[in-house]
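Journal club side-thread
Mid-discussion, someone asked how the predicted structure for our own chain would compare to the paper's figures. Pasting it here so we can look after the session.
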Amino acid sequence: MKAKKKLKAKARELVPIFTLFLFFLPFFFLSPALAQTVEKRIELVCDFPAQKIEAGDTATFELLLVNHGKTATYSLQWWAYREAKNWDIKFEDGNKEVYKVLLPAGSSKTVTLAVETPGDAKVGESPIHVDIGDGRITLYVKITETHKGEKGTLALTVTDKDGDSIKGATVSVYNKNNFVDYAKTTVEGKIELELGEGEYKAEIVKEGYHAKETEDFKIRIGRKTDIGIISLEQKEYYAELTSKSPSKTSMVGENPLYQIKIKNSGKADDTYGLAIEGLPEDWYCRYKETEEGKEDISELFVGSGEEKTLYLEFVPPYDVAVGEYNFTSLIQSSTGLYELDLTLKVRGSYEMRLYSRRLSYEVKRGEKASIELTASNAGKGGTITNIKPEIIAPEGWTATINPKEVTSLKPGESETFTVKITPPGDITPSDYKVTVKIKSDQLEEEEDFRIIVKESSNVALYGVVIIVIVILALAFVFRKYGRR
């Protein structure tokens, strides 16, 4: 009994303690929520927390930051997962990228979260979590179309200092100092060049202007990157040399003529000295202002932006060798030397002449006619090669030729061909034409001969005998039967 009484006494002593525990128990569970409510200082608000874009576009979220607490500086933080964590995401204030913000007590401020997606981003929705102080918000970017496998486009315009477009400027694109591709500007001074995604820089070069290099720029898949107008500064002195036909072919004995244009692309007027390099011995050349002119000029004045035409005439010696010759036209300006390479191929002139003492021959049936025909190279500088004679005669005639072939004939050389031709034995006496044709690799010539075929002497004798016999027979018949 005493034990029970002691237990009851103990229980009565614990009642106040237990009651006090039950009283404070709710505060243990509610204290975090209360603490959170008390300590929550930053509120993040976004009117449009979800956006739809195509891959390669940039989604921008305007975030309103409200400070319910004391003045403090807060870090701007974001985090994402999967492929979105590799996107180009940054906080911006106008054109500046920022990563901390000062919020006075009770103030609010707006900051932009820019989410730049790659062109090959997958179709689908990606969440992006933003933490600023104790404030948090989740934003969503939904990719509606991907441009995977496509390229991006670089666009730019090249002008001079006056704003006039420059045609023909070369725009070379580099990726980490490695050449990638190039393009030339149009009449409007523009280019559009397809490139893979990445970071590049470009160098613009044009004759008569100082070269210029752009700042680094990014190319995005499926998008055009226009880096604007690139202005080039014109050089003080610069000339452009062109020739419509820098390579020519002429025959021995001709004087080749080259047309050369000098364009002064510099800012200042200039006078250009004229010279030649590589002229062989015994050759002569001269610069002329007109094609038909005879006066030799040694310098030429060209105003800024002007273009003038002059002519360079070469006079080779009469015995010039056939072959290829290379020259360099030298134009000396006030600040530099300009060169124009010229090529001349000298070819020999080909002319073959045929000669025979006789063009008419008389033969009897069955006899041979011996024809001699001389072929000579009357050209200048050109060797005639693989000379072969050919006979064109009536059907049934036979012919032999000696020699049958001549390997070559240099200028001034000749060769005599002997042709022996025999008409058939039963041919009718008459006039016949026989043609001897001389062929070569370069050209061919022919000569016609008249062959008069006569009766043989035996045939004539047989005819006379027959006539005499006929006369004697008639005389006998007349004597025997005439008196009756």
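Post-session note: The chain has five domains: 1-39, 42-143, 152-232, 239-347, 352-458.
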